[in-house]
């Protein structure tokens, strides 16, 4: 099989795999920009009308402008908490040795397998008793902590490839202590992995509903965009066009982040395969 034929086969396979992911996005756009009458007449058909009114109404009724700013605050805090903690922890586990350190690392990584709902309710009770609910920063901290097990695994694996024993020994011979080596060597080398963590945590947090609905449900002024979107529907009126429009607005920032971070994601997951 020629190289050109191999490329065509790979492209065809990739296109087939992409169909289940592209179709919901197309359906979302079609629902958001068509009139309600058009949608009722044919929910699964192609749109026969076009309107921006659904997006405009959703923006006004759900106060999506404020919700986007709230979501950005939560997301930035979550990314900062997750990155700082995971990079520091991954570096410690890289230089530490012994069964205790190895066992502790796997215990922390295994925390990602625990369903969020199993620990989120107790956390909510604790925060509610302390008067810390309806707080964007606290919600960001909780979201960031929930992503630490995955980020720790990713950064530690990356450190295992770039932060070699020879490099650590050389830094010690040059008189660099643990903190100096962390600041001058580990942190700069971790940038591809850090960029991957930021991109993934941004997407996860920006589209999160569970943490927002649990910790921010008492005050509409701190609603995130996903939580604000749910306010567009009531028991009497399921506003599918409004919710689709709000979901489209919430989806655009994550698409931009993924488009910008594609190279960083490849480097972060690929380690040093290109070196």
Give the topology, please.
Elements: H1 3-32, H2 36-41, H3 53-61, H4 64-95, H5 99-110, H6 116-129, H7 136-146, H8 148-162, H9 165-173, H10 178-189, H11 191-206, H12 210-215, H13 225-230, H14 240-260, H15 262-270
Helix pairs in contact: 1-14, 3-14, 4-7, 4-8, 4-11, 11-14, 11-15
What would you call the shape? globular
The proportion of residues in beta strands is under 5%
- Uncertain regions spanning at least 5 consecutive residues: none
- Backbone CA Rg: 23 Å
Number of alpha- plus pi-helical segments: 15
| Succession of helices and strands | HHHHHHHHHHHHHHH
State the separation between the terminal residues, measured CA to CA. 29 Å
How many strands appear in the DSSP assignment? Answer: 0
Q: Can you summarize the main beta sheet?
A: none
The secondary-structure class comes to mainly alpha
Query: Roughly what is the average pLDDT, rounded to an integer?
Result: 84
């Amino acid at each position: 099989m020629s190289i050109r034929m191999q490329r065509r086969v790979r492209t065809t396979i990739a296109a087939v795999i992409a169909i289940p992911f592209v179709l919901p996005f197309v359906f979302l756009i079609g629902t958001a920009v068509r009139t309600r009458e058009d949608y009722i007449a044919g929910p699964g058909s192609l749109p026969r009308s076009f309107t921006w009114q659904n997006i405009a109404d959703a923006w006004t009724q759900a106060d999506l402008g404020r919700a986007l700013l709230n979501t950005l605050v939560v997301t930035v805090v979550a990314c900062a908490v997750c990155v700082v903690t995971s990079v520091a922890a991954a570096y410690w586990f890289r230089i530490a040795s012994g069964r205790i350190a190895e066992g502790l690392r796997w215990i922390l990584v295994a925390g990602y397998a625990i369903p969020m709902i199993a620990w989120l309710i107790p956390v909510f009770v604790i925060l509610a008793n302390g008067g810390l609910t309806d707080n964007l920063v606290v919600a960001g901290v909780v979201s960031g902590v929930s992503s630490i097990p995955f980020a720790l695994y990713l950064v530690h694996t990356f450190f295992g490839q770039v932060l070699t024993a020879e490099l650590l020994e050389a830094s010690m011979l040059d008189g660099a202590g643990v903190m100096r080596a962390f600041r001058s060597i580990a942190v700069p080398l971790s940038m591809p992995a850090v960029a991957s963590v930021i991109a993934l945590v941004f997407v996860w947090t920006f589209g999160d509903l569970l943490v927002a609905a649990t910790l921010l449900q008492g005050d509409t002024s701190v609603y995130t965009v996903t939580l604000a979107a749910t306010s567009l529907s009531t028991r009497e009126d399921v506003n599918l066009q409004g919710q689709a429009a709000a979901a489209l607005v919430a989806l655009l920032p994550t698409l931009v982040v993924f488009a910008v971070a594609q190279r960083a994601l490849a480097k972060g997951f690929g380690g040093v395969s290109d070196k």
